[in-house]
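Sequence in, structure out. Go.
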Amino acid sequence: MKNIKLALWAILLGLTGLWLLAVAWPESVTFFSIRGVMVQYSGVMGMGVMSIAMFLALRPRWLEPVLGGLDKSYRLHKWLGIAGLIISVMHWLWAKGPKWMVGWGLLERPQRGPRPEVDSEAVLSWSETIQQLFREQRGFAESVGEWAFYAAAILMILALIKAFPYHWFAKTHQWIAVAYLVLVFHATILVEFSYWSQPVGWVTALLMIAGTVSAVLVLLGRVGASHRVKGSIEALEYHKELRVLETTIKLDNGWPGHQAGQFAFVNFDDKEGRHPFTIASDWNPETRSILFISKALGDYTELLPDHLHVKSAVSVEGPYGRFTFDDANPRQIWVGAGIGITPFIARMKEMALARSDNKAITLFCCTPEPDPALRQKLEADARAANIQLHMVVDGRDDLLTGERVRTLIPEWLSASVWFCGPAAFGQSLQADLTRNGLAAQAFHQELFNMR
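Output:
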């Protein structure tokens, strides 16, 4: 979380600093002179954050080590989207509000100065020619930009509404790319022309070029295309009591392999699109099989047991994520809550084969009473990996708290903690442990939320 918070502030403060270097402050401070400055500032900031958010939508894997994984990258994408929405509303209010206030009689329209005379026979420089061309397009750019803002605002708000079905979110969210492309045209025409010859203009132009390329790739359905591998369902096992489905997929050639704790986007049905699932198996290039464990937590996952069939064709994109258990601590504490046990299953299978990790590891599995078959698998994996397993059963055992972890593991201060489960549960554990001396960077939490 720290890296993406720093990235967000670096983006906001960096763009603000560049704009401050370029802004020409008005000689006389009036409401309308301040309005002009704020329209330009909010325009530059809005296009900057939206351009970076659009680029992050491509799921660039090279940024994962910097931001801490694709889950963190998506969280930054979400924050930038919210920031872009807020800034765009401010931009719209500064642009439209004064006009409304003049119409209501609350403000007096300022007197326009004389327009500069244009010598039709004068030879214009290339810069003056472009500036004149932009000036002629201002009305059209304002009009289409306003409608693009309305469309983008509605789509962003829908994306933030959890009750809005995921498959509709996945489809409608792509339309933001169309609105973004219109806003690029709007900004290109209406940004203060002098900015284009200064650092703020150069950076804004680079960001909009990157955003434009990203938007086109989004609309063409090319996001993650180079990381997709086809396969077919090899086996299905449904645990009705827990509403948990184990899906084994045999992949075609091309999968690069994965580390335990990583996840992938799986497309079982083109109408539904890709959904993220944590990988629950190690990788063997000879068998090319990969296991996903899903729990019925929504409309889509509830339907999977009835809709999936052995030998059905699927597509898997990945791997992504940095929840890979890499650190120098002599001890690790794992906490898997509900379906959050999945990455730990994959890691135990990996360790059982490698037999090279000498860390002392304790796994807390927080779950409703599991069926005997699942429990036996989990216990067998823990024995094979030489891991101490604590089952914390809902309604039977006391809740797992930071205090209980500290009591059961005296050496907890020398450990790293790896948590996967409900966000609020993880935040509660992290707050307790860090308050009592655990280093903040020693707590690792998967932010497995793609919207």
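Check: The first helix runs from residue 2 to 22. The chain has 14 helices and eleven strands.
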